[in-house]
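hiii, so i know i said id send this last week but things got crazy w the move. better late than never?? heres the sequnce for the chain we talked about at the cafe, plus the structure i predicted for it. fair warning i was half asleep when i ran it
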Amino acid sequence: MSSDFTPPTYPVVQFLVAHGKRLSYAISLLVLLGTCGLGLANGTLWLLPAGLVASGLLLGLLLSYVEVLHIIADTLIPKY
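okay and structure toks below
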């Protein structure tokens, strides 16, 4: 066997493990601000509660994705 083998580094997974929670909060906040701003600009006030619900659901989904990614990274990516 050759000793030239280097295990894959998965830079995107490492980035998301390191910054995933902050990105989840930032993306959800942008969705909330965008829908609230759009609702106020157009005068459609139903977008305010819809944006709140949508950003809350999005935050939950993104945080669960980051948590699953943490589990996968801890179990499958070798640490040397």
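btw Helices lie at 11-42, 47-76. thought thatd interest u
miss u guys!!
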